Amino acid sequence: MPETTAVAEDRDESQITGKSIRLEGVTKRYPGQSTPAVDGVTLEIPAGQVVMLVGPSGCGKTTTLKMINRLIEPTEGRIVLGDEDVTAIDGDQLRRRIGYVIQAGGLFPHMTVAQNIAIVPKMLGWDAQRIADRTTELLDLVSLDPDTYRDRYPKELSGGQQQRVGVARALAADPPVLLMDEPFGAVDPITRQRLQDELIRIQQELRKTIVIVTHDFDEAVKLGDWIVVFREGAQIVQYDTPERILAEPADEFVESFIGSGAGIKQLALQRVRDVDLKEAITARPGDDAAEVLAKVEKAGHGHVVVLDERDRPLSWPSRRALSRMATIPAEADERTPVIGSGATLNDALDEMLVSNAGAALVTGRRGAFAGVITIEEVMDAIRAVRASASDDLADAPVGTNAGSDDGTGDEVAQDG
Known about the structure:
Layout: E1 21-28, E2 38-45, E3 50-54, H1 61-68, E4 76-81, E5 84-85, H2 91-95, E6 98-102, H3 113-117, H4 119-123, H5 128-141, H6 146-149, H7 159-170, E7 177-181, H8 189-206, E8 209-213, H9 217-223, E9 226-231, E10 235-240, H10 242-247, H11 252-258, H12 262-265, E11 282-283, H13 289-299, E12 305-307, E13 313-315, H14 319-323, E14 338-340, H15 345-355, E15 359-363, E16 369-374, H16 375-384, E17 399-401, H17 406-414
Parallel strand pairs: 3-8, 3-9, 6-7, 7-8, 11-12, 14-15
Antiparallel strand pairs: 1-2, 1-4, 2-17, 4-5, 9-10, 12-13, 15-16
């Protein structure tokens, strides 16, 4: 049975490449407005984890995000990155140390993919060979073939490909922090799901500190280690794990923001890597199809998984299809249901329904094949879903607003 590694649950600090972020009493006032857009936010973001900022339109979540890299300058308060107060340093220098991803990638249309990725490394004085090597590494990381995409222009890319390049550009100088403002809001639902899975996979590998603004609570549950729920004025209503917010919303405001179906949303807390995967017979392009078919029949399987030279799934032909082949083809079948090991069981079920298959291929690090998940495993998990919450909140990060007394501050960090 192929094994899956639950990297997201591994909190070994030696693997973390991100830095903690702390906002201390951060306020933003705009001239002519009677109330602050953001009012005295104190927010503690742990190193190497993903924190989602959610709330209604105009609540101040994007302003809060942009004050971290000082695209918007705070009126009051301090911003601490790791152990360094970055409030007073040059804003341009700060932004070169923080990756930033916006909706639709924000690529420069007159630059190639490679040139877009190279922007910050060039500013930092990297030599040409180092930039070229880094570009190749990052395109591979975001699942874009470097030889195919390096010299293309943004207009030659799909929306999902542009967003992948945007993530690669943000990671170019290996920053400890990645800020993302509605990064997947401009793509179709299927591409959105795949980009979310890609981000989960990248984070399992890199362990950056990532802060994401989203209006989609389901996305927050799927991606976040922690979720901050804001109301107007960036007032923190609840800062907690997805599990506890779903199980114990702080008040009616949070309940309404979660929406209906909180029990079904619990499926988003369970990952494909948490279930036992089935083994599969694998083959390579050019293999003798008759020999492969004999192996499949002997194992009692219905399909063979065709892998490329890096163990990534290309296709999943059935016994009948194999019987009509002389050799295993090298062409990729876009209809093959593939899901990342960090994806949710909800996503796995969606992939099976869209592809009209009762199973899906699971991939792990760099898209390598890990095993097969069947609809039976997903249905077993659905039947077993129940609200669960951690009883130990000793390590919960802090999130408060100015004017909260000590007791209220503790409640915001834990129960809202």
